[in-house]
Design brief:
The chain is an alpha/beta fold. It is built from 15 helices and 22 strands. It folds into 3 domains: 215 residues, FAD/NAD(P)-binding domain (3-Layer(bba) Sandwich); 112 residues, FAD/NAD(P)-binding domain; 113 residues, Enolase-like, domain 1 (2-Layer Sandwich), CATH 3.30.390.30. 32% of the residues lie in helices and 26% in strands. Helix 1 runs parallel beside helix 9, helix 3 runs antiparallel to helix 4 and helix 3 runs parallel beside helix 6.
């Protein structure tokens, strides 16, 4: 059976979630995946394996530094990197197997191979042996995600100079790790190897890490990472690398002055971002337009300029986040059956899974100043939170930003343990257009870390209790 209502190319978070929602709505769905496991970058070489290593390395650091304070006397922990990597792989396998089950449950037909759009309503699948199957579909969804952004003049060999993929597969802990790029991926993987014993230096072209985040958050978080042992070369660009049996020599220059320097490293992690993956899809032949940044151009309903061809996720405009792709997959499936699928791009949370975590939603102060919007700020530190003290997790704070005239919440930024879990009550609040007072008057269980979120909302009106 090769005739379908929908063929989805790519089974990352956007593709597989969209396919399942479409099947739930009664459509006949097929998916095409070039890997031998579903889940895309996220489940195979991104979000999920990195979180497995982040958690494991956090536990290692807890045992090394905090157990004695908590009254737990154990001998110094020893790293078994092989077991840690085995745990990571088990997590990957469990999640990808779960998608196989969901596809069978929802009667979705899966094809392994490279997908290529031949014409409107026609897609070819070429498997690893070169065998080609042609599928027909009323609608085609491009959900091919993104790939690692290369750094000009630097060759990634996944041995001594690695991408995020290689950064998850190191055979040993490097003595010196240079991370090129101060974004989310670089800081997360840098945190893993720092906790396990690496000396980490972050080289960032801009004058600060985490570009686009709230300035106060970035300033405080940078200080926290320095306390953890991170070194930073900000306003600095990598101009070349030289690899030898001993390691890598990294030539850098100050972005403004041009002052040159050579840094030594055992491993260099290139993490300067990701770019849309569209290679081999046949978009030129069928006339699908790309925008100036190589993304598939779409309208407000995910439709390309070619009838019957749609696109979602990292391959289109917007933040490259798995949950953004999932929301788009669901919305598109609902649109295709005549429902009012919708994504509120103003209320998409972002999380940096370091320790402490950073979680944000909505506007930053810098954005609101640029837009000329008057606002009030409320802040509350975790150092004043009872549960945080009990857990030895007092680093960080919660920051609310609310409209000065209406008190409508415009943004929230959390630095702290479990920030990624706490941000969601603010997401829900903002989804319903709530005010800081709405949250401030909502009872929170005591003692919890989430009380800091309530106190920060109260602080917008300068009526916080515990600070």
């Amino acid at each position: 059976m090769t005739d379908f209502d929908i063929v989805v190319i790519g089974t990352g978070p956007g593709g597989y979630v969209g396919a399942i929602r479409a099947a739930q709505l009664g459509l006949k769905v097929a998916v095409i995946e070039k890997r031998h496991a579903h889940g895309g970058t996220c489940l195979n070489v991104g979000c999920i394996p990195s979180k497995a290593l982040l958690h494991a390395s956090e536990m290692f650091e807890e045992a090394e530094h905090n157990f004695a304070t908590l009254g737990i006397d154990v001998s110094a922990p020893k790293l078994n990197l092989g077991n840690m990597m085995a745990h990571k792989q088990k997590v990957i396998d469990g999640n990808t197997a779960g998608i196989d089950y969901l596809f069978k449950k929802n009667k979705i037909t899966a094809f392994q191979g490279m997908g290529k759009i031949l014409a409107v309503g026609k897609v070819a699948v070429t498997d690893d042996d070169g065998k080609v199957i042609e599928l027909s579909a009323k609608n085609i969804i491009i959900a091919t995600g993104s790939e690692v952004m290369p750094l000009p003049g630097v060759e990634i060999d996944e041995d001594k100079i690695v991408s995020s993929t290689g950064g998850l597969e190191l055979k040993g802990v490097p003595k010196k790790l240079i991370v090129v790029g101060g974004g989310v991926i670089g800081l997360e993987l840098g945190s893993v190897w720092s906790r396990l014993g690496a000396e980490v230096t972050v080289v960032e072209f801009l004058d600060n890490i985490l570009p686009g985040m709230d300035g106060e958050v970035v300033k405080n978080f940078t200080r926290m990472l320095k306390k953890q042992g991170f070194k930073f070369k900000l306003g600095t660009k990598v101009v070349g690398t030289e690899t030898s049996a001993k390691g890598v020599k990294v030539s850098v220059e100050a972005a403004k002055s041009g002052k040159a320097e050579v840094l030594d490293a055992d491993i260099v992690l290139v993490a300067i971002g990701r770019r849309p993956f569209t290679a081999g899809l046949g978009l030129d032949a069928v006339g699908v337009k790309l925008d100036e940044r190589g993304r598939v151009a779409i309208d407000g309903h995910f439709k390309t300029n070619v009838e019957g061809i749609y696109a979602i996720g990292d391959v289109v405009v917007g933040p490259m986040l798995a949950h953004k792709a999932e929301e788009e997959g669901v919305a598109l499936a609902e649109i295709l059956v005549g429902q009012a699928g919708h994504v509120n791009y103003d209320v998409i949370p972002g999380v940096v899974y370091t320790m402490p975590e950073i979680a944000t939603v909505g506007k930053t102060e810098e954005q609101l100043k640029a837009e000329g919007v008057a606002y009030n700020v409320g802040k509350f530190p975790f150092s004043a939170n009872g549960r945080a003290k009990a857990m030895l997790k007092t680093d960080g704070f919660v920051k609310f930003i609310a409209d000065k005239a209406t008190d409508k919440v415009l943004g929230c930024h959390i630095v702290g343990a479990s920030a990624g879990e706490m941000i969601h009550e603010v997401v829900l609040l903002m989804e319903f257009g709530g005010s800081s007072e709405d949250l401030a008057r909502s009872c929170h269980a005591h003692p919890t870390m989430s009380e800091a979120v309530k106190e920060a909302a109260m602080a917008v009106d300068k009526r916080q209790i515990h600070s």
